[in-house]
Backbone:
């Protein structure tokens, strides 16, 4: 709850124009946040079946000045979209018109198509061919594609057409991306000069992504749903086996909602020993109110602006 604009230290903002903030999530807000300056702010959302998060970037100072995060019941992405629409009506931080906005959608189903063979008119065919059990037969599904900046490829995925229509109406001009689009573009840009294979594990509630790259070469990107820590390590070791990666030596980078206190970290470290956490994306500045946040947390949320700017 944020009954007023409180920073993480508990100091109330002195900016009287900010107004009241009322919602069921946790927010951290810098005292420089000012709704009257929202025309220079970018609003980034991350929507998953179990969480809604957003952050505010002051594009003039290139600094993140607000973060909101809320856990929700696991009732699917469509339901999460409905809850986001409600949040847009009730959260004071969202009451102004922003310079721009974007949403990354967290969904396990997607496929990556090389630029050389990609045809927008056949996007649904690519999705149906590569994903078993996709929602291709359900009416009202819209197939989308994102052109990646770091490699010559497109992410292809499907979302509810009704949800997309409602979100586009509520956030006019919003850019919508699959979460792997932002993740891949960022990782490939930041680690393009590495000549050894690196495995990234991006862990969120109920879903995680595995990305393996070597320089500019994408070896693998896949998403897995998991219900237990055993599921997580099973799928990870399966990928290591398929790619013949040595769990004792391969550089393995953790990001997302995982730290040394979590059971997910403990079981991963049992089998994979060369672990480290990713550093915060240095392409941006961050308010001091975010200092208590582990740098790997919300990495993809904070990074998505580079994909839409």
Residues:
């Amino acid at each position: 709850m944020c009954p007023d604009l409180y920073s993480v230290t508990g100091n109330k903002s002195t900016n009287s124009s900010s107004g009241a903030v009322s919602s069921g999530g946790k927010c951290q807000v810098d005292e420089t946040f000012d709704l009257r300056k929202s025309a220079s702010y970018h609003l980034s959302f991350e929507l998953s079946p179990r969480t809604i998060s957003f952050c505010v970037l002051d594009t003039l100072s290139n600094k993140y000045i607000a973060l909101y995060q809320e856990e929700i019941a696991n009732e699917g992405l469509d339901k999460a979209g409905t809850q986001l629409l409600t949040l847009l009506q009730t959260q004071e931080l969202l009451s102004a018109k922003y310079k721009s906005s974007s949403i990354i959608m967290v969904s396990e189903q997607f496929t990556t198509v090389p630029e050389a063979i990609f045809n927008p008119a056949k996007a649904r065919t690519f999705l149906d061919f590569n994903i078993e059990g996709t929602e291709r037969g359900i009416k009202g599904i819209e197939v989308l594609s994102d052109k990646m900046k770091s490699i010559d490829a497109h992410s292809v995925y499907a979302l509810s057409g009704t949800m997309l229509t409602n979100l586009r109406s509520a956030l006019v001009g919003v850019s919508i991306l699959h979460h792997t689009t932002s993740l891949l573009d960022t990782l490939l840009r930041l680690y393009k000069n590495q000549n050894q294979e690196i495995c990234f594990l991006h862990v969120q509630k109920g879903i995680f992504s595995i990305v393996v790259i070597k320089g500019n070469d994408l070896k693998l990107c896949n998403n897995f749903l998991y219900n237990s820590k055993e599921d997580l390590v099973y799928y990870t070791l399966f990928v290591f086996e398929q790619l013949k990666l040595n769990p004792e030596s391969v550089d393995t980078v953790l990001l997302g909602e995982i730290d040394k206190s979590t059971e997910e970290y403990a079981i991963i470290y049992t089998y994979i020993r060369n672990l480290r956490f990713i550093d915060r994306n240095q392409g941006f500045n961050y308010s001091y109110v975010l200092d208590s946040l582990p740098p790997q947390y919300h990495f993809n949320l904070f990074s998505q602006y580079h994909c839409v700017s």
